[in-house]
Amino acid sequence: xxxxxxxVLIEDIQKGKYVNATDEEPAHIVTLWGEKASRVxxxxxxxxKNVDERMCFLFLDDGTGVISVRxxxxxxxxxxxxxxxxxxxxxxxxxxxxxxxxxYPELIVRVQDPNLETLRLLEIVRDRKKxxxxxxxxxxxxxxxxxxxxxxxxxxxxxxxxxxxxxxxxGVTVEELASALKISKLEAWERIRNLLAQGTVYEFKEGRxxxxx
Length: 213
Description:
Elements: E1 6-7, H1 10-15, E2 17-19, E3 28-30, E4 36-37, E5 39-51, E6 55-61, E7 66-72, H2 73-79, E8 87-97, E9 100-110, H3 115-133, H4 155-166, H5 174-181, H6 185-198, E10 201-205, E11 208-211
Parallel strand pairs: 1-5
Antiparallel strand pairs: 2-3, 3-4, 5-6, 5-8, 6-7, 8-9, 10-11
Helix pairs in contact: 3-6, 4-5, 5-6
């Protein structure tokens, strides 16, 4: 049965639950947001390529993860023209082999404007904001022991730790994060935007953000 392609981050696919095909429905993933998708749309850069006489694998990176796009036979020839560094918008079906989820491509479009990466991320964030406003949150992360903020943390982990420290129940603003981290408001917003897309924080109320526990 045909279903529209769902715009997702690669991380959504990799952290989601893969479900094998049945007589009633095709193979699909269930994301942490409870979304089911058998066809997905991913925008990413080719970071590696594997070609032989029978098949072609492209490896796409969208900043949240890397996934392979695989084809065989005549379909593989269509993939060979895309070089490492190409920015691609891929519509593909969810497949799995030996525990690894990959995409079988239906349509690939070469993207010339890198600003479309930001636009795609904002589209996904907007859709998830609507879901949160409707009262649904993604499945909680595994509980981790409290850790002190140190320089070896990733920028995203550091943001989460600062939010945890500053949040008195009403969330934290971008300005408060920027001041605590001694970075610009723009840089603080970029980090918050990435965490919104990853589903690790949410907008509690306009302009105030909280960790998802």
